[in-house]
Amino acid sequence: xxxxxxxxxxxxxxxxxxxxxxxxxxxxxxxxxxxxxxxxxxxxxxxxxxxxxxxxxxxxxxxxxxxxxxxxxxxxxxxxxxxxxxxxxxxxxxxxxxxxxxxxxxxxxxxxxxxxxxxxxxxxxxxxxxxxxxxxxxxxxxxxxxxxxxxxxxxxxxxxxxxxxxxxxxxxxxxxxxxxxxxxxxxxxxxxxxxxxxxxxxxxxxxxxxxxxxxxxxxxxxxxxxxxxxxxxxxxxxxxxxxxxxxxxxxxxxxxxxxxxxxxxxxxxxxxxxxxxxxxxxxxxxxxxxxxxxxxxxxxxxxxxxxxxxxxxxxxxxxxxxxxxxxxxxxxxxxxxxxxxxxxxxxxxxxx
Length: 352
Prior knowledge:
352 residues; alpha/beta; 14 helices
């Protein structure tokens, strides 16, 4: 009787072993803030009383430690605050990360969620392509990836070819294969990372800060941040960049159907565990979310409350006040102080 070749089984076993090792090493070619955000989601601790979720504008505007301290002062009790932050205005990756947090740590009493929509008209055709970028495939659980993708609804009117044939679409088998190969590469990359001392360390405060440009315990009511004021040349450049390709948010625009659906599902994810949910938008230099847009947000998402972060800077000096910004999209420490203080004072009502 002929002996069956064992080489293919050996190769398969090696690949499976590498994939498992890579999933533990997590040495992916990705920004470190993603790994630190997942470390926070998997932390062995109960859910925070207040959870902020959003992109880099949330990271720049919200200081969880400052808000904890101010809430303690305003309410007379000890309340915990976390911030889940992923760069870019993509909702599906935030849904995957949020599912991880809620499963591992439970539901917060209050969730403050940034409205995650694209504002660059040239990028709008690429929204949701693919549903799962590499950061979700690498760090997210496969069952979460499946759930998020199966729940996704697209705007398909006028489509000539099926969506699954479009460039950028990843079917679930392709996602599973991408996850396995990503982990294999992570395992192969690990020895070089160790020898080069470039393995990401998300221990200590970096679990909460996640990115050096984001806030965690580095703003104070008594500090002066005058050194961060932009120069006239910087402000002119910010203004040009802010207005380039800018598109307003109109929830009735068919181009927003995908983003709106994803945001509704993110809100519902929190609400199913009893969290009180607020939506917010953060100001940008030279671009003020109009009162009409803010009213439209509240009409589109009646299931959530609304905290107007833009008005906080309006009161403090207006959206063009360069003392509040570090670039065209993000506030600096002075702006973070205004918004974090306003958020803490507003949320204190929910705990009094």
